[in-house]
Design brief:
Layout lengths: L1 E2 L2 E3 L3 E15 L3 H11 L11 E8 L10 E8 L4 H16 L6 E4 L6 E4 L13 E5 L2 E6 L6 E4 L1 E17 L2 H16 L4 E2 L9 E2 L10 E2 L8 H4 L14 E6 L2 H16 L4 E5 L10 E4 L5
Parallel strand pairs: 2-16, 6-10
Antiparallel strand pairs: 1-2, 3-5, 3-6, 3-11, 3-17, 4-5, 7-11, 8-9, 9-10, 11-15, 11-16, 12-15, 13-14
Helix pairs in contact: 1-2, 3-5
């Protein structure tokens, strides 16, 4: 199959389920909002038992509970351990949002299957001086801090989301890595309920490794710098010098498929992108498969 002259390989990506907390962070100004949103969702770490997160979109003040600039954030956790999820989520909130001046955090999970109490790991940052008020029609914890005061909804809902969908776009020049990738991210960001936790990722990995304490390591057959060294084991096509990856998480399979389609269409318009494929592990990693040809 070809889209805009770019080969789309007949393959699939694997996805797996994870718990997702969707929230709205607000701030007094856009600069602080962006720092809080991007800091809290940086360092995707699902492969090492931590959170994989991203900014879904920025919101106009008319779309937020407290009528201030806002951002929709998604926080995913892949392990079946809600206590650890609560702790990992609290790190992001406490270290990246609470410490920013005049920020607040609200629940925005669409179809909650349960709730996380924010008092134990976040509210008690007030050292026992915290209190609860009803603000903006929501029950909020007020955490007294030196730049008064951090406000967070008492409970954050969580629901099952889809993690790990991906595509690789194979490039013959460096410019296409960034320009095509940026257009793909832009196209994906136009879809509601999805995030790209790694942005443009230069390091697709594989589950098997010589160093298990690290976690997933480089997917060596797809490393262009190893082509001569690997010989017939190399899977880098002729003329391909770069193989970036874009990973997509989302709240439903339908939204993830839509985002994959739009992202692939975006990169296919660049002459420097010769083909598109996906990272998969013969169905051994994910709960589900999304076949690229079924997207079109």
């Amino acid at each position: 199959m070809k889209i805009n002259g770019t080969i789309i390989e007949d393959t699939f990506c694997e996805t797996f389920n994870g718990k997702c907390v969707r929230s709205i962070v607000t701030a007094h100004d856009m600069e602080t909002l962006k720092r809080a949103a991007y800091d809290a969702t940086s360092t995707p770490g699902a492969v090492i038992g931590r959170l994989e997160s991203g900014v879904e979109s920025f919101l106009d003040p008319t779309m937020t509970p407290d009528s201030r600039p806002g951002a929709l954030l998604q926080f995913y956790f892949a392990l079946d351990n809600m206590e650890k999820f609560e702790v990992e989520l609290s790190y992001r909130i406490r270290q990246d949002i609470l410490v920013k001046p005049f920020t607040s955090l609200f629940n925005a999970t669409l179809k909650p299957e349960g709730y996380i109490d924010m008092m134990k790991h976040v509210g008690h940052c007030g050292d026992g001086y915290e209190w609860i008020e009803t603000l903006h029609g929501r029950e909020m914890i007020i955490v007294p801090i030196a730049v008064p005061d951090f406000k967070i909804e008492t409970r954050m809902g969580y629901q099952t989301g889809i993690m790990g969908a991906n595509f690789w776009y194979m490039c013959k020049d460096k410019e296409s890595v960034l320009k095509a990738g940026e257009k793909a991210i832009e196209a994906i960001n136009s879809i509601e309920e999805v995030i790209t936790p790694f942005d443009i990722c230069s390091a697709p990995s594989k589950p098997e490794t010589k160093y298990p304490w690290i976690g997933p390591t480089t997917n060596h057959p797809y490393c262009p710098s190893l082509k001569k060294r690997l010989g017939s084991e190399s899977k880098v096509p002729k003329g391909v010098k770069y193989i970036p990856e874009i990973v997509i998480n989302g709240l439903s399979r339908e939204k993830v498929m839509e985002a994959l389609k739009e992202g692939i269409k975006a990169v296919s318009k660049f002459d420097g992108v010769t083909r598109v494929t996906a990272g998969n592990y013969e169905g051994k990693l994910g709960d589900d498969k999304i076949f690229l040809h079924e997207l079109f």
